[in-house]
Amino acid sequence: MGAPLDPTAAAFLFAENRNMPMHVGALQLFEPPADAGPEYTADLVRRARATEDLAPLFLQHPHRSLTTAGQWTWRPDAQFDIEHHVRHDALPRPGRVRELLDLCGRLHGTRLALERPLWEWHLVEGLADGRMATYSKMHHSLLDGVAAMRLLQSVLSEDPDERGTPLPWARRDRPGRSDRPGRSDDTDGPHGSGHSGLAVVPAHALRSALAVAGEAAGMPTSLVRTLSRGVRNQTSAVSFYSPRTLLNRTITGSRRFAAQDWPLERLRAIGRASGTTINDVVLAMCSGALRTYLTELHALPDQTLTAMVPVSFRRAEAGTASDAGGNAVGAVMVRLGTDLGDPAARLAAVRDSMLEGKDALGSMSNAQALAMTALGLAPAVVLPLLRLQGVARPPFNLIISNVPGPDSTRWFEGARMVGMYPLSIPLHGIALNITCTSYDGRMGFGLTGCRRTVPRLQRLLGFLDDEVRALEAAVGIS
Amino acid sequence: MGAPLDPTAAAFLFAENRNMPMHVGALQLFEPPADAGPEYTADLVRRARATEDLAPLFLQHPHRSLTTAGQWTWRPDAQFDIEHHVRHDALPRPGRVRELLDLCGRLHGTRLALERPLWEWHLVEGLADGRMATYSKMHHSLLDGVAAMRLLQSVLSEDPDERGTPLPWARRDRPGRSDRPGRSDDTDGPHGSGHSGLAVVPAHALRSALAVAGEAAGMPTSLVRTLSRGVRNQTSAVSFYSPRTLLNRTITGSRRFAAQDWPLERLRAIGRASGTTINDVVLAMCSGALRTYLTELHALPDQTLTAMVPVSFRRAEAGTASDAGGNAVGAVMVRLGTDLGDPAARLAAVRDSMLEGKDALGSMSNAQALAMTALGLAPAVVLPLLRLQGVARPPFNLIISNVPGPDSTRWFEGARMVGMYPLSIPLHGIALNITCTSYDGRMGFGLTGCRRTVPRLQRLLGFLDDEVRALEAAVGIS
Predict the structure, then answer these.
(1) Which stretches of sequence are listed as region Disordered (chains A, B) (predicted)?
(2) ipTM of the complex
(3) What pTM did the predictor assign?
(4) For B277-296, what is each residue's pLDDT tens digit?
């Protein structure tokens, strides 16, 4: 009998079904080095498969049976076959980004088999412009999305000539390397205040935050009662009513993925001219794009949409969810102002709602802050519990998160990384997830949706682009 | 609650595990038409996904729960998503047949998720020579291998200009079309006696034969007792002792696939010069190739290897396993003569063993013939039962079958089919399966093995080629 799963990890297995696969992913785009021969990608795959010493996380699979009394345990995969996990894919012609996004959607819409370790890494060639891509997939019971992005970043190099970097699944010589804060955490300067509201937390802190949700999965604790009261009661920081939209329906297991990035400098300039943060500008972009999208579908509600936005905040006294630096993780419910026709008014509404939410978060009790944390980081686990408490629908329409990435160029085996886009988890009632990540002067948007519930998801990319221009015009810098 | 699975289909679900996926497959190679534009394969995929009226077989998935009292039932997939089943794949560079076979091995080594209908169809582009391929995968609980090959053939056309042929999953206007005997059944002439010993049986006859194995799965009936006695006792037609080889070990879920074809005329000429059938020549090729292969690995046993070879034979009185034409299906245990150094001696040994086996089969009682049938067609179900009866190992070393295909050129949407190769099911103790199929003047070999148990499987292709030359020399026609 293997090691038991911690309650949070087990909760993700219990919450998973055919319509809600519980894995996160990432798409990374690379330009191969100038001297790359025709065997470049094949050699990379060979090297990736030749990893001899894998971290236990990547060798174990969940198992339960009568002998485990029905409990999930981690068991080493006695027949671990790295060729199953490390795959060499190619795109059909014409090899545009569209074909790449189609592939990502298909891969992200397929569950990981529980009989094997819960990860895949695909090296994708066949982009007409000669770039290559990786699509990585990890089950949420192993790592949450932020920790997964960090793990992927930890194997990138700042040195174009570095070769032989250990792959994400290699056992590390330096323990805790993947928990080491990324460079961008230390050098927030260049981005100004843009990133100050974002979830920049070491993986171990997220883990302990998630453990709260895990306890909640076991029994209706005070956490759930707090959340439940909050959702019913406008006076608490947790309390919001959201209109029901087409994004808030039961989902299927089919996924669509859309991704694009914009220069951080354009977003920063909008922020400077309007006194807002980059995060506010990101949210205002989403707001305007969603307004156009829902209007086209004749489905824009009169009331504004609300986004659940994970944030970090200084909180010396925060107990469980804090690390040495005193950061805590919470979630702010942001009214997006989709009911407002003017881009500048939407941006102002987002800024005000964000400030209000962060103030409320700062004044919450520890228990309330933890409750927010749990709601923010583990909605898949917490939302069903809220329903058990008689809360008919989630207190928000979608999840928008923003995970900072490296602020300078990174390389992988001499290939320059030119883009990085997270894939996240749509849920019943929350059919769209927008996760952004900054990298090397650009802000990458990853939109993951249920293909059937969220029609024509790709159009949101064009609407996001329209909204950047509209915001530039509105603040007078275009 | 849906329709219950018949006992045979259920037996395949019960027998399946991570190491023994119970699906069959086929690789088909095509030359696109001269006027094919860059969108040719993408258009094919679009059309394939646009099928509106699917046969129920392709819309249902197996389900069991407390409400079905633990029994498997077929249930329509309420969220059927054809994009999950019909896939557009591409090969990584350099796009050789090797990359195609690697892809087939990987796809064949992945189980079908029981929560969805149990089939996939992959359209593969990216072969450097401009050809395209399809890899089809169907669970054995839907169709056995012969019926699956027939289904795939039924959608091919003899007319290069025909377009819009219904795809295998389309509901047929003409009921039973897939059960219609193929052209090659009616025109055995050109192949001479070469195909007379092969399993050419309509799908419904196979179905009733398989039902016997299904009953056996439920309880140790007289069938299993007959088999068990036969295996212990040299006097019965079922009785053989086989040496234990590296092919007869516990397998893993990893698959390797190798495929190649040879001109039928070369095999026919060897048969003419030696008084043997094409089927004998196929078996002698396998014998010589296995001898070389095992010798290289220092693993050739002193005793000859035995192959289980499914055959059909005229048997007016055969009850359950017969169709109107009076054909019955059985299996012959063929001593391959791998202990003999001379190619001509091996060919003669195969011919004698085959004749002897067919004579024995003809003189068996109906119950014995049925037992052979079950053993031949459903080893996955019957072998575990034999073990329950104290039979330590299978009475043969590998399975070699030969399924006739079309004897003239076939087309699919204007693309000329230039090759067809079956992928089959390795089992614990039977790590290698060789299935051949003839098409348009060539004999295609499909070798499916456990990648870990059968090392360097691809080398067998070279050894098969060597053996054709050796046989030509031995019978004096080279």
Answers:
(1) 157-198
(2) 0.80
(3) 0.84
(4) 999 999 999 999 999 999 99
